Amino acid sequence: MGTVIRSGESMCRKMTHFINPANDLIIVELGAGDGVITKFILNRMSKDAQLFVFEINTELCDVIVKIKDNRMILINDSAENMMFHLTKYGISEVDTIISAIPFLVLPDDLTKKILDISKSLLKTGGTYIQMHYVKNVKKMYKNIFGNVHTYFVPVNIPPGYVFRCIKVSE
């Protein structure tokens, strides 16, 4: 986990605000932690949507698995392997990716690999959403996605940022 305190309601709402229940039928969550954002995603998405949740920490997966929702598929593996897992489910393209992976503590090459895979999986017009506690990482998302919108969430401990990138094309 990227912080010792789970994301607050304001952060969770901002992270899930951009989900369009009518159009976002395949959603991926990266770095689900204890599932606090997962619950908000499930509440926002349509009854016909699917949520693929990636969490590398087995102990946190034991907490997430207690969320009973047949639209959720929990995968205990690294986000760098999401292409492999999604392909097993017949998924080649996703509508939205929501990530709370603490990229600042990961090696740069792993971060870039996960972001490149995320971009390649997004449909044109799809959205990648990432939370951070610092703003100076915006350039990293701009370099990969070509665009990024930043939203400050002051009512969170600690205050944080949501970065929203829309895939324009390859």
Describe, in plain words, how this protein is organized in 3D:
By secondary structure, this protein is of the alpha/beta class. The protein contains six helices and seven strands; from the N terminus they run H-E-H-E-H-E-H-E-H-E-H-E-E. The protein has a seven-stranded mixed β-sheet, sandwiched between helices. Helix 1 crosses helix 2. It starts with 8 loop residues before the first helix and ends with a strand. The model has no long low-confidence stretch (mean pLDDT 93).
At the fold tier of CATH, the topology name is Rossmann fold
Q: Give the CATH class.
A: Alpha Beta
Instruction: Please state the average pLDDT score.
Output: 93
Order of helices and strands: HEHEHEHEHEHEE
What is the SS-derived class? Answer: alpha/beta
Largest sheet: 7 strands, mixed
Order of neighbouring strands in the sheet with most strands: 3-2-1-4-5-7-6
Shape: globular
What is the subunit organization of this protein? single chain
How many helical stretches?
Answer: 6
DSSP summary, beta strand count? 7
Which band does the percent of strand residues land in?
25-35%
CATH-scheme architecture: 3-Layer(aba) Sandwich
Q: Distance between the terminal alpha carbons, to the nearest Å?
A: 31 Å
Low-confidence stretches: none
Helicity, as a percent range:
25-40%
Rg value: 14 Å
Number of domains: 1
Name the CATH superfamily classification.
Vaccinia Virus protein VP39
